[in-house]
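User: Hi! I'm working on a homework problem where we have to compare a predicted structure to a textbook description. Could you give me the structure for the chain below?
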Amino acid sequence: MVEIPVADGKIDGYLAKPEGAGPYPGVVVLHDAIGLGKDIKGIADRFAAAGYLALAPDLFSRGGRLSSSKAVFENMLEAQGRAFEDIEAARLLLADQGASKVGVAGFGMGGGLALVAASRKFDAAAAYYGFLPKDMSLFEGACPIVASYGKNDITLKGAASLLELDLLNRGVTADVKEYPEAGHGFATKPRLGALSKVVKAAPGHHAESAEDAWRRVTTFFGQHLR
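Assistant: Happy to help. Predicted structure tokens:
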């Protein structure tokens, strides 16, 4: 774990470094509403193995999971607030460590944050089942975006096609795909325990879709971050 300097002190984060001499491109990895857990750290490790300096900030560092999740989710929907200051602090830390280009990748709530952050100094963005912002005009001038959705995600019906069309109309370089057999949370391992049986919006991991999305993301990042 590392400490990330922010305006009101420091927040926790997980830093994964590639082997060998740098500099490397960077990736800020944004967790979902469940928080910074083993699976998100594993994704940061996987980015590092692919040659990226990966930093996953704990956006819930300041308080309890429920209150923090609510606050960050509201920031995501309103496209403003302290969560974006924390994300920018993570980007700056990677830049300070020598990353000439920095991308952002997020999951669920983090995917929504990544979509908003695409117009905020990042060089590429990857959104896994990211919630769309209320004001789509923020995509004007956004960096290249790769986005992945599940057709069985009842919380984001039609989001993939809506996002794809909006980015196309704005001239934003994009790769948007909806996976027919996947739902919300398909790219991370289940962490809800018994709750996963009743939370239909999060049917859990779908390995085939997750691996295809990973290939698309790393190819896309390879084109825009190296």
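For your comparison, note the following. Helices lie at 38-49, 65-78, 82-96, 109-117, 159-170, 207-225. Confidence is low (pLDDT under 50) at residues 193-202. Good luck with the assignment!
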